[in-house]
Design goal:
The chain is mainly α. The chain has a domain of 158 residues. Helix content is 70%, strand content 1%. It has 20 helices and 2 strands. The protein has a two-stranded antiparallel sheet with strand order 1-2.
Length: 474
Amino acid sequence: MNLNLVAIAPELYMLLLITALFIWSLGKDYEPPVEKWIPFFAGLGIFVTVPAFWTEPQLMFYGVYKVDAMSQFLKVIIAFGFFICCLNATRQPTLQEGKRADYFMFLALSAWGLMMLCSAVELITIYMALEISSYSLYAIIPLRAGSKQAAEAGIKYILFGAVATAIALFGLSYVLAAQNTTYIADLALKNWSFAGSPMGVVGLTMFLAGMFYKLALFPFHFWCPDVYQGASNETAAYVATLPKVGAVVILIRMAQFIQPGLEITTVLAVLGALSMTFGNLSALAQTDLKRLLGFSSVAHAGYITVGLVAGTAEGLSAAAFYCVAYVLMNLLVFWVVCRVAADGRNLKLDDLDGLYKRAPALAFSLAVGAFALVGLPPLMGFMGKLFLMTAAWNNGYNWLVIVLAANSAIAIFYYLSLVRHAYTHEAKEDTPLPDNSTFAVCGAGILAAIVFIMGIVPQPIFNLALEAGKTLTP
């Protein structure tokens, strides 16, 4: 068994952090409080993860675990997102004091599962890593003091997750029966046409349903708006971002054998088009900000499929880059949501009224995030969509590129309503004040700057994604 500790340093560091949080959760009066030190060690995890990017590609643990450019690239994003989510959650007003260590432990456990998911190249290993990342979320979604809606969101996520898991396992049995292997490298050499392997195609479609559930791709999206709305703002910020990375990396790996023209690729393209359209049209009718962002994530899941169906290194790289952009843009918007709702309440669009007067820095950062999610230049969202469309054009799915462009136009109406409320409406006298602390302003400013700079100079990140994509295609 090949084992390189340097290559799996991110996973080992996260495991050590989980152990420390577990010890902290056992006591009541440990000093310092967990919220004082967890951001520092979560940030240190980024510096542990980045050097691992340049390790040589290798298979470990009897070929089920692969360390390569794609896995290490996305682990860096998970480490960064985990740091931001921990920083954000240190001021979570709806979390009871005695449960803070448990909360961060489950958050770290989920991130650890996602890191393993990035390197898993065998279907059973993928399933195990997926469940590790999911079970943690089952525990933290209901953690919102005095909220029946949070309990409802937790129950829905557990029940729908159980159904998606059952479908995925049933599909895995079909794949194993039809193709006699669960290793992605071996599966890539098999026949995936419906005429050649109908049981394999049905099984793979069912197995991918588990990934579609995590990605909130239509029609596996139904949990998404309800869970976002019921969970605390800080928990929703995590659920809306990092689990998508794990789903995308598995879909990217499986895109090695989901080639243009195959029935399963066409199914993915159709689901992508439906997801974009349904998500954007549903978001138009929302007044609750987190439900709006929930349907928005359904639409963005559809956007990512445009790169996956292209069947080229550029398409896979564009999907990875857009996944990074999606995580950063949503972290920015949710950071502003958490700071505006300093008391932990759910925000309506009307709660943004007059934000430019009450918190100018937060209003500007919200505008940057909204414009980026729309895909307006020169922000990161625009470059992400441009890379997706150019990668997919002339690869058999031009109609999907047109659907993406049309849906981007639809999305303008509801994303810009955030800015409209923040800048053109006046706040009511009894509107609670947002968090205008240095912590709030600096966090929003840094995230807005990253989204802005990555839109102007996207090449370094895209080159890393392209290098990673080329390792996955012949």
